């Protein structure tokens, strides 16, 4: 579509997904556990003060295609990252609808 110069808004929304940190993390995470190895985990509980006041799994730092991805709470993947990727995919769908409606 980009080469043909059509559906510019759709191309923009797709590119927004492909460069987003949440998408890139989930892509690397899934490819690593699917094709390479399991990612080490630890259980952590933090309470009081400036902590997260949360307990759960922490996925350790891992490397994928030369890039190091930091350790992260499992709840961040399930909540923040999932919501962000869903939002980006929804934006792609809405841009497709708008493009098709304008034809």
Please provide a written account of the structure.
With 103 residues, the chain is α+β, with helices and mostly antiparallel strands. A 3-stranded antiparallel β-sheet has the order 1-2-5. A two-stranded antiparallel sheet has the order 3-4. A hairpin with a 7-residue loop joins strand 1 and strand 2. Helix 1 runs antiparallel to helix 3 and helix 2 packs across helix 3. The longest helix is centred in the C-terminal third of the chain and has 28 residues. The chain is elongated, with a radius of gyration of 18 Å. The chain starts with 7 loop residues before the first helix and ends with a helix. The mean pLDDT is 92.
What are the defining features of this structure?
single chain; two-stranded antiparallel ribbon; three-stranded antiparallel sheet; 3 helices; alpha+beta; elongated; 103 residues
């Amino acid at each position: 579509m980009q080469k043909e110069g059509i559906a510019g808004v759709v191309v923009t929304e797709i590119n927004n997904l492909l460069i987003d940190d949440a998408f890139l993390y989930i892509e690397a995470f899934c490819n690593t556990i699917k094709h390479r190895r399991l990612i080490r985990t630890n259980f952590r509980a933090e309470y009081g003060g400036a902590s997260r006041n949360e307990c759960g799994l922490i996925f350790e730092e891992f490397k994928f295609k030369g890039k190091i991805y930091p350790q992260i709470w499992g709840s961040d993947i399930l909540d923040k990252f999932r919501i962000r990727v869903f939002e980006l995919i929804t934006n792609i769908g809405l841009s497709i609808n708008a493009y098709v409606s304008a034809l």
